[in-house]
Amino acid sequence: MVSRVIIIGAGEAGRMIAREIAAHPETELEVVGFLDDDAGLHGKTIEAVPVLGSSDRLRAETDRRRVDEAIIAVPSESRDFIRRVIILCRDAGVAFKIVPGLIEIIRGSVSLDQVREVHPEDLLGRETVEFDEAAIASKLAGRRVMVTGAGGSIGGEICRQLGRFALGELQLFGRGENQIYEIEEQLRRAYPDLEIRSIICDIRDSDGLMHAFDRARPEFVYHAAAHKHVHYMEAFPEEAVKNNIFGTANIIKVCREAGARRLVMLSTDKAVNPRGVMGATKRLAEYLMLGSANASNDLRLATVRFGNVLGSRGSVVPLFMRQIRAGGPVTVSDPAATRFFMTLKEACMLVVQASVMAQGGEVFILRMGTPIKIMEMARDLITMHGLRPELDVPIEITGLREGEKLHEDLVVDGERLEDSSHAHIRTARPELPDDWELSSVMERLNDLVRTGDGDGIRRFLDSIIPDARLERH
Fold it and tell me: What is the pTM assigned to this prediction?
């Protein structure tokens, strides 16, 4: 049975889709018209298809022409436009899909098999960032590359992205054997020629690390292993210190001793003006990286600061998706709360790109556009599912949890922010606090961890990080 299609957007993307459908009658699709908000196109015929009017006519034309499906073909439009069109499709009772982004259009590579369901990243309001894969491939060819925390959502995706390059060996490092097993199986199916070494070890185990690195001898190390759940780290500050601070110090030490060439650590916007233990421990880990970079000759160390990563475990978006599918409520901390968002692929490729660009001591930051209100993201995701916020799916305001901020920042006051060789990546040049003395800091933290003094950890982190304001418990 032929499915009757209306294309929203009569620009190059829409025209490519119309041509594809016309060239492939076996798809059993029939384009009945375009809708486009450019009044100059109304009444014209493009690719033998009439332009029926603006997008607001979707419901009328759906009824009149018995439309089964709408294809949204406006990849350069804003998230507000995408949201509005999805609402129009929902109200018209018509199924909807979307074409890829503008980069694919420019390359002329849009085809029918790329038309897909609307994803959360389509609501970012910006094009997803492309990276210099030729430079990455050249730098990583034949190298032994390790990912710590390889069983996590971000670590696993870094591994999947790295599998596309001609590595000498990909080393999967993690303490959770089940997660490492799963990512190894995925990679072996996807990249049967890739040399893979799995390493079960804990970054807090300095002796185990030494033996593992002595055997594996990684050249590039991407340090993704960390505790990242804000509310858990508020409850267990000792664990945050052991994993995020001591674990990072151990990784730096064994990278240097094993002759690694590059080390990139994953940090977070929560490390800027930290209000909770998790952010403060990641900020201190940034200090460790910076201090070691200043003292290093052969090993280049760099840090990447993330925003909220779409699709990663612990991110607000997968939580919202689960809540929507369960019928709600969708829980939002505060109606005014905002976050920077990046896709999982962007986050992982930023880490890999940073390893290629690093000179030592930089913090790499992706241009993520303006921060998005969490409330708007929740409403958009509900709409994306063809449902109505508040009516079909309730939204519940829960209040900020301990350690959470209303708004996140990407740059510390006083950091020198510079452009890089990549148009969408900036670098910050942080400075260590006055009177920073690593050995005394680590010794004091070790004493506090050993005695289980969580409040003491908070007070000490608050005292040594200039812009910290940790909540008292």
Answer: 0.84
Question: Apex CA 309: angle with CA 303 and CA 312, to 5°?
Answer: 110
Q: Which amino acid is at 139?
A: K
Strand partners, 116: 98
197 three-class SS: strand
Task: Name 471's Cβ contacts closer than 8 Å, sequence gap at least 6.
Answer: 234, 275, 276, 402, 403, 458
Number of helices and strands in the chain (H, E): 17, 21
> Helix or strand or coil: residue 252?
helix
* Tens digits of residue pLDDT in 147-182: 999 999 999 999 999 999 999 999 999 999 999 999
- Three-class SS of residue 283? helix
- Checking 135-139 for CB contacts under 8 A at 24+ apart, the result is 135/356, 136/165, 136/352, 136/353, 136/356, 137/165, 137/166, 139/355, 139/356
Q: Which of 139, 228, 270, 345 is catalytic?
A: 270
Q: What is the tens place of the pLDDT at every residue in 192-233?
A: 999 999 999 999 999 999 999 999 999 999 999 999 999 999
**What are the tens digits of pLDDT across the range 394-432?**
999 999 988 889 999 999 988 888 999 998 999 998 888
Q: What are phi and psi of 324, to 5 degrees?
A: -65, -45
Tokens of residue 427, six digits = 């670098």
Residue 92 to residue 61: CA distance in whole angstroms? 9
Q: Give the phi and the psi of residue 103 in degrees, each rounded to 5.
A: -60, -45
Say whether the peptide bond before residue 329 is cis (omega within 30 degrees of 0).
yes
| Strands 29-35 vs 3-8: parallel, antiparallel or unpaired | parallel
Residue 103, pLDDT > 60, answer no
Amino acid at 310: L
> How far is residue 272's CA from residue 339's CA, in Å, rounded to a whole number?
13
CA dihedral 384, 386, 390, 395 (to 10 degrees): -40
Rg (CA), the chain: 25
Q: pLDDT digits over 315-368, tens only? A: 888 899 899 999 999 999 999 999 998 888 899 999 999 999 999 999 999 998
The arithmetic mean of pLDDT across residues 424-441, rounded, is 89
The residues with which 6 forms a beta bridge, in sequence order, are 33, 70
CA-to-CA distance for 303 and 354, rounded, in angstroms?
Answer: 8
Distances (CA, A) of 147 to 31, 139, 159, 169, 247: 47, 16, 7, 11, 14
Residue 126 CA: distances (Å) to CA of 80, 131, 154, 279: 11, 15, 21, 27
The amino acid occupying position 126 is R
**Cβ atoms of residues 411 and 430 within 8 Å:** no
- 85, 20 in Cβ contact below 8 A? no
Residue 373 falls in the annotated catalytic set: no
